[in-house]
Design goal:
With 211 residues, the chain is of the alpha+beta class. It has helices at residues 31-38, 110-119, 130-137, and strands at 10-13, 20-21, 56-60, 72-76, 92-93, 100-108, 123-124, 144-149, 158-159, 186-189, 195-198, 204-210. The chain contains three helices and twelve strands, in the order E-E-H-E-E-E-E-H-E-H-E-E-E-E-E.
């Protein structure tokens, strides 16, 4: 969702934790975002959360009384039908290889993520070196699917583009899941710049790569 001033636009989500942008960035950061947070423009809920938690935020166009910033943010139900505006997420490029990467902030399962990247004429990101991990990891603030899977043979990971699987950056102990009824056969890159195995039907954001 966009971080723009516009009446009745859902900006951020809560889900029981401090409010974050959908990109994983903190709402209490610098600039106008931080000013809203520091100025107290995120109003407290006017009704109990109950079965319909107010985990999203909409902006109303009238200035809050006594505030210098235009507009205020109101906790809202994420299922509310409101106008919205999208924000373009740019590709970023590795100058060493000219490979381009893009984070898709739309949660989906691993198979859907693979198809999404292929529609962009690319593939789920294949991170084959420490330098590449440092580059893409520096852009990631939420978990994103990458193109590694061991669905064909447990603990024998392969990349979707068939590159050699020589470099890996799993969290220590992450692969100790042998014998699970529902094995974790797919992989995400986390905000910690490490890899985590996940069940492929889980829903996560996506990291695509174009060579």
């Amino acid at each position: 969702m966009a971080r723009l001033s516009h009446p009745n636009i859902v900006h951020v989500y809560d889900a029981g934790a401090p409010y974050l942008w959908t990109t994983g960035e903190s709402v209490s950061g610098s600039g106008p975002i931080g000013e809203h947070a520091r100025e107290g423009l995120i109003a407290p809920p006017t009704e109990p959360s109950g079965p319909d938690p107010l985990d999203c935020i909409r902006q109303v166009g009238k200035p809050a009384p006594g505030r210098r910033l235009q507009g205020s943010w109101i906790p809202s139900n994420c299922e509310d039908n409101l106008p919205f505006v999208c924000e373009q997420v740019d590709w970023f490029v590795d100058p060493r290889t000219d490979h381009a990467y893009r984070i898709v902030y739309d949660k989906m399962n691993w198979a859907q993520a693979r198809q999404t990247c292929e529609r962009m004429e690319g593939h789920l990101a294949t991170i084959t070196s420490k330098n590449e991990l440092e580059l893409v990891g520096g852009q990631v603030a939420v978990e994103v699917w990458i193109g590694a899977t061991d669905v064909e043979k447990e603990r024998s990971f392969v990349w979707v583009n068939k590159e050699p699987f020589e470099f890996q950056a799993f969290v220590p102990g992450e692969l100790d899941h042998l014998g699970e009824a529902q094995p974790s056969d797919c992989v995400v890159l986390g905000a910690d710049r490490l890899w985590h195995d996940r069940r492929c039907h889980h829903r996560n954001n996506v990291l695509c790569e174009v060579e």
